[in-house]
Amino acid sequence: QVQLVESGGGLVQPGRSLRLSCAASGFTFSSYAMSWYRQAPGKERELVAAIASVGGSTNYADSVKGRFTISRDNAKNTVYLQMNNLKPDDTAVYYCKAARQWPVTTTYWGQGTQVTVSS
Question: In this structure, are residues 117 and 91 in contact, taking their beta carbons and an 8 Å threshold?
Fold first, then answer.
């Protein structure tokens, strides 16, 4: 069955780094655009970063540009989010999402991993 399993979250001090991983199985990973979303308490889920299925083009939320980097390894069916210079406002549950529009619109979500930035 389809699985997206996030890992790498935790408690970190401001200014430090974390790398999140999302391991995919049960579908053709290379055919899907991958993205990271986050949801802080009392707030809506928001897009953090995305990477295309082909070509590797990326886009980022303004709040993380220059600090976060999304990448993918199609051989390992894994997408990563390198987070540097973390801030308390980055505290949230981070979710991995897989999506494609053809031939059928299909979306998969992971269960999320908690990231807490605090001194």
Answer: yes
Do 48 and 94 meet the contact criterion of CB atoms below 8 Å apart?
yes
Is residue 20 within 8 A of residue 113, CB to CB? The reply is: yes
Is the Cβ–Cβ distance between 24 and 33 less than 8 Å?
A: no
Both tokens of 15, joined, read: 């200014």
44-64: b (≥16 Cβ within 10 Å) or e: eeeebbbbebeeeeeebeeeb
User: Tens of pLDDT along 19-66?
Assistant: 999 999 999 999 999 999 999 999 999 999 999 998 889 999 999 999
Q: Residue 85 half-sphere exposure, CB side, CA atoms within 13 Å?
A: 7
Nearest to 83 by CA among 116, 57, 111, 53: 116
